[in-house]
């Protein structure tokens, strides 16, 4: 499997770790798993660890994912989602913009500590 999704050790947020470049298909698969965990745990905080996994969706797929896929897969709008990418990797920045414009609270970080701090604030 090219990703893992699990609840953090302290049980406060959901973690998704991509092990391959982020395509729309991979993002959809991860979102399905997030939706299951959100529904079963009630946890509304999501940490997307995409370090080592550049975003290869492209502009059209970014829009389709944010405006169609996420809601249809059962991701509620009242989540808070941090994306952690490698320093110097700006390939996920547009994903933040599109997600925010579609009504989701999403922010890109290059530090795991800052991402977790923002999620838990």
Task: Name the features.
alpha/beta, 121 residues, 4 helices, Transcription Regulator spoIIAA, globular, 5-stranded mixed sheet, 5 strands
Element order: H for helix, E for strand: EEHEHEHEH
Q: Looking across the biggest beta sheet, what order are the strands in? A: 1-2-3-4-5
Low-confidence stretches: none
Number of E strands: 5
Q: How is the CATH topology named?
A: Transcription Regulator spoIIAA
Provide the structure class.
alpha/beta
Whole-number radius of gyration? 13 Å
Distance between the termini: 32 Å
Rounded average pLDDT: 97
Indicate the CATH architecture: 2-Layer Sandwich
The largest pleated sheet is described as: 5 strands, mixed
Work out the strand percent.
15-25%
Q: Multimeric state of these chains?
A: single chain
What form results from the Cα inertia axes? globular
Given this structure, which CATH class is correct? Alpha Beta
Can you describe what's shown?
The structure is a single chain. This protein is α/β, with parallel strands linked by helices and 121 residues long. It has a single domain (3-120), classed as Transcription Regulator spoIIAA (2-Layer Sandwich). It is built from four helices and five strands; from the N terminus they run E-E-H-E-H-E-H-E-H. It has helices spanning 24-41, 59-72, 93-101, 112-120, and strands at residues 3-7, 14-18, 45-49, 80-84, 105-109. The protein has a five-stranded mixed beta sheet, with helices on both faces. Helix 1 runs parallel beside helix 2 and helix 2 (59-72) crosses helix 3.
């Amino acid at each position: 499997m090219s990703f893992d999704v699990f609840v953090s050790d302290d049980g406060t947020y959901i973690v998704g770790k991509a092990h391959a470049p982020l395509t729309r298909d991979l993002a959809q698969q991860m979102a399905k798993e997030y939706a299951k965990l959100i529904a079963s745990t009630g946890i509304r905080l999501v940490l997307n660890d995409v370090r080592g996994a550049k975003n290869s969706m492209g502009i059209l797929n970014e829009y389709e994912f944010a405006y169609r896929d996420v809601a249809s897969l059962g991701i509620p709008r009242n989540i808070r989602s941090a994306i952690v990418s490698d320093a110097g990797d700006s390939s996920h920045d547009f994903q933040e913009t599109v997600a925010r414009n579609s009504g989701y609270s999403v922010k890109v970080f290059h530090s795991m500590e800052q991402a977790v701090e923002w999620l838990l604030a």
